[in-house]
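quick one before i forget lol
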Amino acid sequence: MRTALVGYGLGGAAFHAPFIEATPGLDLSAVVTSNPKRRAEVAERYPAARLLSSLDEVWAGDFDLVVITTPNRFHATHARQVLEHGLDVVVDKPFAGSAMEARALASIASSRGLRLVPFHNRRWDGDFLTVQRLLASNALGKVHRFESRFERYRPEIKSSWKESGDPADLGSILFDLGTHLIDQSVALFGRPVTVHAEIATVRPGARADDDVFLSLTHEDGVRSHLWMSALAADLGPRFRVLGHDAAYVKHGMDPQEDRLKAGDTPAGPGWGEDPESAWGTLAGEPLRTEPGAYQDFYAAVAAGEVPVSPQDAVTGLEVIEAAKQSAASGGAVRL
């Protein structure tokens, strides 16, 4: 599949290009970026890829798949343009700015028989795959609480659209890290029935929400407690899953992101392996972390599959909208 990658910031350079390049059945045929420095980086690392300056140039090419990893505010607009030109599309998170916008994209894709795939790569984090395996084998017994955190300590505010106070930029930590946490919860336990949220901006001078807690209640009674923060001076466990028979507790982040930022590729030795010192515990005993496997997302795309349903992205955006309502009212919101 001749693939055009639109955008070459951190997302394009670290999370998309290396996997498109390494996946049999996919060809990184073009990269769209007008930034001179990034164009030079693409030319050096992927000399066979054409360099394009705008999305409009994609329509003149012979492509099968377009990957959108532009700034958040453009995701839905660019995805719609790709679908209207009759091409399959992968869309980085957040999938859209609203659930309504996401439903409209899904409707266009369905009516034209095209694939519309949200890039929710954190489903292939090794620790999340470990949680999935434990639930599938009933190793914890009946789960009643799922705790999940993406916490950082970044007191300094960056000059970036991700820190923007303009709602159109979708820069809130709820859209950024929250999208992943909500998606993982939905993948495990299904669409929640109620949402309670605390949303705050705690760093001096910050304009975007940077500290959020969500409590989701699922159909079977499981409660998902999700934390995301840019000002956590003491980091809590990445996962704490409580069941009637045992608990799984895991600290630290999946290693794939740091390796990608360092320039490693999924073809490298030991890809996705968690060091033994970072393993979690099951009933207090060390448990090897499943290898992380971001490459499986694009392997599924190359095989003609839809590894993440657009409906799951719609559900995630419904949760975000309910969270905003809950934070404003102080009460839980039913979905």
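fyi The chain has a mean pLDDT of 96.
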